[in-house]
Each structure stands twice: as structure tokens, then as C-alpha cells.
Amino acid sequence: MAAEGSVEQRVESGQTWDEFCDALKRAGAQILRPEAPADAMTRAEGWRYLTRLLRIGLEMHLEFADPDFPGFFAPSHETGKIGADNPDNLYLMGRINGRNEYVIRGERGSVPYLSFGSQKGGYETNGRMEQTGFLDAAQLQLDAEGHFEIVLSAEPQSGNWLRIEPDSNAVIVRQTFLDRKQERPARLTIERRGGDAKPEPLSAAKLQQGLGNAARFVEGTATLFANWAQGYLAHPNQLPPADQALCQRVGGDPNIVYYHSYWQLADDEVLIVHVAKVPRCRFWNLQINNWWMESLDYRYFRICHNKHSATLDDDGGVTLVLAHRDTGHPNALETAGHDRGTMCLRWVGADAPVHPTTRVVKHAELAAALATRAVV
Prior knowledge:
By secondary structure, this protein is of the alpha+beta class. It has helices at residues 7-13, 15-27, 40-63, 204-232, 244-249, 366-371; strands at residues 89-95, 102-107, 113-122, 128-136, 147-153, 161-163, 170-176, 187-192, 256-264, 269-275, 283-289, 304-306, 318-323, 332-334, 340-348, 357-362. The protein folds into two domains: 7-192, no CATH class; 236-371, Jelly Rolls (Sandwich), CATH 2.60.120. The termini are far apart.
């Protein structure tokens, strides 16, 4: 029998589990915030959102938590989404300890954009994921077959090197597709340098720490992005530049300029988003999200257009149209049954980002508005 009050006793008695469940219950307050839409769909998506965050949190803090034996997992994907997750991305994360050294081995593949970033912090602690190092795959040294190795260390290394600090606790990989059907993602593994022992079996202490961190991750992530969504209410159906420093503090890619906002449309309304001149860039896209900043279900609905899929205007600009029903426009975006939500535009590696303009018109007036480019 474990000693009274010990970690082992708390796990044996179920106290650790009870505290975990209580912490998850507190996270539900974010779904019931007064400014959040209270319709059945938004509430249902909100409760589902918490279950998705929990799945990600358990992967992050329990299943893949050991920095001595790291592995890559997906912190956002088709059915688990955080903070305007990019529908054109394949995300990977590995947990690390900045006092160790690691090596990532991979095959480059053909995906157009690939980046590696080391980070410290976390949404479960201070609400930040601050960058401690960054490597753009455009700088990667590859062998003749497209294979590479990247060393993660505090001290500079020859060849491919990703800087880490003593407080670094994660590495984030972004792979961005123009066309998922045609492009091959990089194949990657990560391991600690200089360690060949086997991991210890699960202990009561590891379980308690993992469950606690996972629950804090759910509440912290839900709170962070609920605050963001609330802030977007100040500029509905517009798309201003986001606070780029804030985006970087929560784990944004330094090659990206972000725009975030809130949209809301009546049944007979259409939102027109216009960019007068698409800048030279490595990638861009516009995506539609729900209130909880989850991309809408891109498996079944056209909720995103990018540099590859969008048709440009004759003058080099681009016009995108969001509506509840078919508009016949080549750059149409679907609301997927939602009457409001958030949205995100991103320029990746743009020479000079161009701010979009927006306008809401009646569905019956769309053709005339597009013909006159009456977007303000």
C-alpha cells in the first residue's frame, strides 16, 4: 500500500483521475462565454472542440511526452484543430529537452514549403510557444536522393543545424501543400543523440504529470483562442493584419504574415474578399473557420483557396467569394452550414504583403458588384 498522500496513493485511490476530470470540467466555461454564439451547432462544435484538444493534449503530454525517446505526432489534423489550423498543412511535433541533443533524419519529398522550429513554453503553462530556433528547408543540404539530417543543439553545428535553448521543449514541423494529390510530404524521424537505453515503464508520477498537463493544455488552449475570437468581433467581415508579434509568441512561422477576423452572413448575403495585386510569395491561402478557430471540414467542403487552386483576376489580383449557396464563382468558398465564424489569410515569404479589402453584398447583387470591382 502506498504511503498516505504520495503520488502512488493518489493514483491508486483515483484522486488523480478525479482532479483530471474536474480540470476538464472547468475548461467548459470557455464554451459558455457570453460573447460566444449560443446556437446548437456552435455549442456542439465547442464541446467537440474540447474533446479534440484532449486527444491532442494526451498525445503531447502522455503518449509522446518523454524527451529522451521522442517521436513525431500531429498536433493539428483533419479531426483535431487549433488556432486557425492551415488546411494545406501537415503539422508534426516532437517533445524535446533543450539540455539534450537530437537528430532529425528525413527524405525531402516534393511538398513546396517545409520548415522546422524549436520552441519553449506551452499553452498549458504561460499561453506562449516562443521560438528558440528556425530552419527553412530552402536552406537544407540534401544528398543525391533527397535525404538529410538536422542536428538540434545549443552549440552551432556544421551542415543542417536547428538551434535549441536549455528551455526548448518542442520542435514543430510545417509542411505546406499546394496540391495534396500531387505532392509528397517529407518522411521524418527524430531521436536523441547519445542515448540507447529503453524507456522506463509508466509510473504513477508520469501519469499524474501527464494528465495534469493535458488538462491544463485543454483549458489554456481553449481560453487563448476564445480570447482571440472575441477580439475579432471589433472588425466583422473585414480582414485586417493580425498582431504579428502576438502570432509569433504563440508559435507562428516567422516566414508568415497573418490576417485574422470574424465573419457573419445572413442567408442572402455574400462576403467578397479582394486583393488588388497578389504579391510574389512562396505560398498564400484564405481559409474559413468556425467560431472556435477550427478550419471548417476541408475533407468535404471548399473552405480554402491557395496559390495553386485560386484563379487570378486579369489584372493580377484575386477575388474570393464566401456564400451560403453556390455563386458559380471560380474562387467560391463554402460556409458549410455556418452563419458566422472566423477566417485567416496568410502570406508566406511575400516580398511585400498586400492587405485585402472586403465587402458584403446581397446574393442578387454579386454579379454587378464583381463586374464593377466595387469592393471597398
